[in-house]
Design a protein that fits this description.
468 residues, two-stranded antiparallel sheet, 18 helices, mainly alpha, single chain, 6 strands, 3 domains
Length: 468
């Protein structure tokens, strides 16, 4: 954080509960939930939080779904009750919360590295980790599953994603021209080091997100949503979805993020032209890579040198940055091996320190290594399983979906979820928006199958009997 947040930053966080409740008062519950969560991620301030005893930091990633939950309790309580907490992928959150207590019990030793002293884990720390898991991971996932259950809901969600990208593009274009200053102008401080916004002789926009990389991925998934809508011949207001998709592809290029550009170069044409079954095969390949990545890194089987050579040919600076990430991963993986099953816990215990001086030697870029180091294999499998379970379920049941439009949109949303999750390997930007979309995918799949069973035409003999 560069500078101090102004009073408006804290007011915005508090007011979001009222804004979310107002949305539920005037909109369909599904639309209100999506706009409350996605809008909170888009516009609320970064790196500002309220701190309460026994609770994780109450920041935008908690307030965005928290506001939606409060609005739902007031205006759509039946949806919350009928969703039944703990179904489907949410069971993984409960397992993860239970393993938090095991992590605490298996880390009773304080750690000392030179002048750096790290406290032992207590049962209180374990409970705090468990509460964090439920609120940060479970709540947005549950909201997505609770409010998105039908084919109509699925199409609505894809439309909201595409429209959100178009709306955000106006702010992105402003920052490309004027520099990434909106967060500073409105909330009083830069949310990240300004030097990291300088790219290719211009600026990489951040708007109100934690980093320019996150903005680029947001634009990419909005473009994927618009591309999926173009396959079902939808209009966004009066504009054909295919034109919106082309416009968002242009905005993606302007975001100047190499990783997102590479994703887009492959996945946007795939979404535009491939059959849903082929899209889902790509999803499964990426899913397998994500789950195998820790083992590949631990055994030096991942082709790091090949990737570095490719990156060096594209841009030497990005290759150097990637090399630094790989070096840090190797240090952190070596530390994680010592407590591989349940991790090192909180207080920075999973990081690598100089044994003589106590200086922190590590940089944790990827969410996967953060989860692996702090929570071990159980933590990694539960956290990533929550995100990967819905696309895997879609792949298994896609043949049972009768509507071609539903197949395309389910495959599109699966690809969006897998893009977000793949990006958690090099980066640590897990947002409530990401978890909400995974939950929505988990909700609409069984809902659409249920709709099909209800709408199934009666056999002819049964029809004759009903007439008589």
């Amino acid at each position: 954080m560069l500078g101090e947040p102004n009073s408006l930053a804290y007011i915005a966080l508090i007011l979001w509960f009222a804004v979310s409740a107002a949305m539920f008062a005037v909109l369909r519950p599904a639309a209100a939930a999506a706009i409350a969560v996605v809008g909170g991620v888009m516009f609320l301030p970064e790196r500002v939080s309220f701190d309460f005893a026994a609770l994780p930091p109450v920041n935008k990633q908690l307030i965005a779904p928290g506001g939606a939950f409060v609005g739902a309790l007031i205006f759509s309580r039946r949806k919350i009750i009928s969703a039944r907490v703990g179904r489907g992928g949410e069971a993984l959150v409960l397992v993860l919360a239970a393993t938090a207590l095991v992590t605490a019990l298996r880390n009773p030793d304080p750690l000392t590295y030179g002048a750096t002293h790290l406290p032992a884990m207590s049962l209180y720390d374990g409970v705090s980790l468990a509460v964090r898991d439920v609120l940060y991971l479970g709540l947005p996932f549950f909201l997505g599953r609770a409010f998105f259950r039908t084919s109509r809901d699925l199409q609505l969600l894809i439309v909201i994603m595409a429209v959100a990208g178009v709306f955000y593009s106006l702010l992105i274009l402003y920052e490309i021209r004027m520099a990434p200053v909106l967060h500073k102008k409105i909330y009083g401080f830069h949310q990240h080091a300004f030097i990291q916004t300088l790219r290719f002789g211009g600026y990489r926009p951040m708007v109100f997100m934690a980093h320019g990389l996150l903005v680029a991925i947001f634009v990419l998934v909005s473009g994927l949503a618009a591309t999926g809508l173009s396959r079902v011949r939808r209009y966004l207001v009066v504009v054909p979805a295919r034109l919106v998709a082309l416009y968002l592809a242009f905005i993606l290029v302007m975001c100047k993020s190499l990783g997102a550009l590479l994703y887009g170069a492959v996945l946007l044409p795939l979404t535009a032209f491939a059959r849903p079954s082929l899209i889902m095969r790509v999803v499964v390949v990426l899913l397998g890579l994500i789950m195998a990545y820790p083992a590949l890194r631990a055994t030096d089987l991942f082709p790091t040198e090949v990737m570095l050579g490719v990156a060096d040919r594209i841009e030497p600076k990005r290759a150097e940055s990637l090399r630094g990430r790989f070096v840090n991963e190797e240090l952190l993986v070596e530390k994680a091996r010592a407590r591989i099953w349940f991790g090192w816990g909180a207080h920075g215990r999973a990081r690598v320190y100089d044994p003589e001086t106590g200086r922190d030697l590590s940089t944790t870029d990827g969410y996967w290594i953060i989860q692996m180091g702090s929570r071990g294999i159980f933590g990694f499998v539960c956290a990533f399983g929550l995100l990967l379970y819905p696309p895997l379920a879609v792949n298994r049941r896609l043949r049972r979906i009768r509507s071609p439009h539903d197949k395309i949109l389910l495959a599109t949303l699966s690809l969006v979820v897998i893009v977000f999750t793949t990006d958690l390997l090099p980066n640590a930007f897990l947002t409530s928006h990401h978890l909400f979309l995974a939950g929505a995918l988990a909700g609409v799949l069984p809902g659409i199958l249920r709709q099909q069973r209800v709408a199934r035409p009666k056999p002819r003999a049964e029809k004759r009997l009903s007439r008589s």
